[in-house]
Amino acid sequence: MKLDRLLSIVILLANRKIVQAKELSELFEVSVRTIYRDIDAINQAGIPVVSYQGAGGGIGLSEGYRLDRSVLTEAELADIVNALQSVSTIYPDRDRKLLLEKMKSVVPAAEAERFQFRTRQLVVDLSPWGGSGHLEEKVALLKKAAEEERSVEFAYCDAQGNESARDVEPYTLVLKRQSWYLYGYCRGRRQFRLFKLFRMKGLTIGERFDVRRPVELERLPWNEAWHASGKTTRLKLRFSRRARHLAEEWFGVEAVVAEAAGEDGEERYIVAAELPEDRWLYGFILSFGPDAEVLEPQSIREEIRRQAQGIIGHYAAKT
Fold first, then answer.
1. Where residue 198 falls among pLDDT bands split at 50, 70, 90?
2. Residue 94, class by beta-carbon neighbours within 10 Å (0-12 exposed, 13-18 middle, 19+ buried)?
3. What fold characterizes domain 133-226?
4. pLDDT in tens, 227-255
5. 202: how many CB neighbours lie within 10 A of its CB?
């Protein structure tokens, strides 16, 4: 809408000293001529826009023009900006970029330096190491589908390695630990499910769904499903001294308990945890190599032993 564009231009001009008309045209995907018509409309509305000629020139607002910031305190504004900046690290979004500009613009020039310091005390970078363009594309596509209330279709590979076609009504994107998930209503299973984005293939947007099903996201329903009876197993693990920091990283310092030293005098640590038993769990335990041992239950202990023997078979010397 033109009104939204006019307001966004005012915000940008209030936040920056000078902006090039070409930069505005690229940002809003309109012609430079349209930008100049917008500037005329802003001037007619009584907002003082000034043009600066020559090298380094551009468009700006009269000195001292600022938006009213009486609704939020400086600390509240800083918290909002920190949250927006953290979300922006996972995928680009023009609207969020403009919102950040709006938030920063309401800070008076005299307090700008202190406000900038506040918003740099905490940096939350949600993007994966090395970047992941495909993940960003999926997040953007699923966000669009959820906003427009359209179903999505994709091939999904579950934790057991089974692949199936899914038709899902998307409701929300969830960042859990270090992975993105989609929480939505699976039409084939006729219930809400949590889908890991990295396990999706061939993602496409489908038709609009007529009824938005009631769901209380405040209760974090995916956590309730994860703890459902029969899905998790109580584990008792023993870690070596050199893997103590890894155990603390995954389970928390409080969960790692020192065990009485054995005959060899080596320090060992015990962790009790409740985790879902699936292929991910076996791989997770094996990732610690010889520094972790399953003590209970016996069934998982035997499964890890079987898989370890299979690994040895792959690397055994060929005669």
1. confident
2. exposed
3. SH3 type barrels. (2.30.30)
4. 665 677 899 999 999 999 999 988 888 89
5. 9
Contacts of 178 (CB under 8 A, 6+ apart): 128
CA 264 to chain CA centroid, Å, is 45
Rounded-to-integer distance, Cα 238 and Cα 275, Å = 15
Non-local CB neighbours of 239 within 8 Å, separated by 6+ positions: 246, 247, 256, 268, 269, 270, 271, 288, 291, 292
The CATH number assigned to the domain with range 2-61 reads 1.10.10.10
Q: How far apart are CA 147 and CA 150, in angstroms?
A: 8
Q: How far is it, in rounded angstroms, from Cα 64 to Cα 40?
A: 20
**What are the boundaries of each domain within the chain?**
2-61, 74-118, 133-226, 232-315
Sheet holding 179-186, edge to edge: 191-196, 179-186, 163-176, 150-157, 200-208
pTM greater than 0.70 (yes/no): no
Q: Which of 52, 60, 44, 57 is nearest to 10 (CA)?
A: 60
Distance CA 286, CA 6 (A): 57
CA dist., res. 85 & res. 116, Å (int): 12
Q: What is the pLDDT of residues 98-121, one digit of tens each?
A: 666 666 666 666 666 777 777 776
Q: Look-up: residue for tokens 């940096």?
A: 123
CATH 1.10.1060 is right for the domain spanning 232-315: no
